[in-house]
Amino acid sequence: MSRQGYVELGKQMTAATSPITRLMWRFPPYRWSIVLMKRLGVTGRTAVIAMPYLWLLLFFLVPFVFVLKISLAEALIARPPYSPLIEWSEETYLTIRLNIANFLFLIEDDLYWKAYLNSIKIAGISTLFCLFIGYPMAYAMAKATPSTRNVLLMLVILPFWTSFLLRVYAWIGILKNNGLINNILMGLGVIDEPIVMMQTDFAVYVGIVYSYLPFMILPLYANLERLDNSLLEAASDLGCPPTKAFLSITLPLSLSGIIAGCLLVFIPAVGEFVIPALLGGPDTLMIGRVLWDEFFSNRDWPVASAVAIAVLLLLVVPMMLFQKFQAKEAEGQT
Amino acid sequence: MRGNRSLFLTSCLAFGFAFLYVPIISLVVFSFNKSKLVTVWAGFSTKWYGELLQNDQILQAAWISVRIALVNATFAVVLGTLAGFTLARLGRFRGRTLMTGMVTAPLVMPDVITGLSLLLLFVAMQELIGWPDGRGMTTITIAHITFSMAYVAIIVQSRLSSVDESLEEAALDLGARPVKVFLLITIPIIAPALISGWLLSFTMSLDDLVIASFVSGPGSSTLPMVIFSKVRLGVSPEINALATIIVLIVAAGIITAGILMHRQEKIRQKEVQMAIAANE
């Protein structure tokens, strides 16, 4: 920056209307950083974009590079427990060791395939249940009077804001052999032996549907609430029966909300760990739990990383779909 | 016909809310159960609340979690607002698609994957530059900020998209610098979104188990980690007491928020009516 330019900048800053700017200009580090930014052509706009951008790049995107790197390493009894990828030997030759054995292991060993497919199955069926329970609820809420609507919304939000972990824990108390359901049924004399519900696939389904139901209701409600009633009124004026009006007007218009809600449930449910760990049995294979066990019980970081990469590859397409429909929903709000 | 339909809808609502609330209510009810078996009723007692308040492990973990959550919520709101503002107001820029992706992905990414990836990052960073030195509250906080800011960004972005730009443009036309416009005009308009973003980040941080388990270190066990290790072994009445306290706090908060919003809406409506009357 030329001397002239620096003088001009100084005049501009000391004549600034904000006393904070005038004060800060007196401190050399502030002066230097402003001059540097001007030299580099970095505007305030760039700084605003850069701050969250850099954080996300460093702490969200870059970690996946490391996951990929570790998935190509070997497990070692060391700290950290994996072999280095890049090594300098004495003659300063660079050795890069890529180990794809972990991925082959995933393909060969039955456990991972089964867990993978089981996770998709459980997540998919749970998503459908959430949809079938959540859509009528969201619809009823959207149709209610404004004051009732607010109360109902608060009633849905309360479980959403209560701890996920504690709500799943609540189901342990309900489903176990001397839990709420069995006690009631045995007390009423309906059954003699307790029904085994804990540590089964059934418990996992209940847990996932229960925990993720608010995630389905809220976007659906937001979508249905925006729906123009006049469309339905016009349809009924033209003699359309309510069911047909629902199928040809409401349902198609709420489609992007449905898809966004379903993906909001499906994608995290695939990688869910807490629910299968607390409610599922040893044979309830879900890939999130497999990853956890590989990491914490087996201390096998490379295989855990390989599992993570496999799950990421599976979820990339649904995540892109979610982004697309979420953007659609956000646009619809204007 | 219409009667049938609303009966169907009402019963769906009733069943749905029963489904949502029975577990929560059972948590509360059984926290007052004298029996240690939690679900076998043996009489009314509040002794578990006493036990809870004397349980050092839980109290210490709760304190750690609250501190992490406070720092997390504040930073997440700052970064998330910047991100949301960028996406809503700053139009096109190089790398916008990537940013949108990075802001949407944490909303749905399974926790085990974010947890593992962040741990590997911290280990690598420790090797390369010596920071963070060992894992603990700092690493947990960084991890939490990363996913919380995504939620705040989405909330802020959607709120800003629905707000008319003309107020800000008018201020700029009148000669205010962009920073001033942001602080004096934009922020008050999106204030409710910022508050709910802060609260959401706080709650999610307090509730996070998986990510904290991956990136925590010795001596930095968070509350969910302690709860999880306890409930893995079965039900525990102190956890019921803790759950009841949390439910009551959340309920109080939501009801307060509801009342405040209701009042604000009434004030706003009055102002609109007065404006209409004044124009006539």
**If helices are DSSP runs of H or I spanning 4 or more residues, what is the number of helices of chain B?**
11
How many domain regions of chain A? 2
What is the rounded distance between the termini of chain B? 45 Å
- The CATH C-level name of the domain at 56-234 in chain B is Mainly Alpha
- Stated plainly, the CATH topology of the domain at 56-234 in chain B is called MetI-like fold
Low-confidence stretches of chain A: none
The proportion of residues forming helix of chain B, as a percent range, comes to: over 70%
Strand content of chain B: under 5%
CATH evolutionary superfamily of the domain at 56-234 in chain B: MetI-like
Number of alpha- plus pi-helical segments of chain A: 16
Secondary-structure element string of chain A? HHHHEEHHHHHHHHHHHH
CATH superfamily of the largest domain in chain A: MetI-like
Strand content of chain A: under 5%
What does this structure look like?
The complex is a heterodimer of chains A (334) and B (280). With 334 residues, chain A is mostly helical. Chain A has helices at 3-14, 19-24, 28-40, 44-71, 101-108, 110-143, 146-161, 164-175, 180-187, 201-225, 229-237, 242-253, 255-270, 274-279, 287-297, 301-332; strands spanning 86-88, 94-96. Chain A folds into two domains: 3-70, no CATH class; 103-332, Orthogonal Bundle (MetI-like fold), CATH 1.10.3720.10. Chain A is extended and about 95 Å long. The model of chain A has no long low-confidence stretch (mean pLDDT 84). Chain B is an all-alpha fold. Chain B has a domain at 56-234: MetI-like fold (Orthogonal Bundle). Chain B is built from eleven helices and no strands. Chain B is globular and about 70 Å long. Classes of the chains: A mainly alpha (334), B mainly alpha (280).
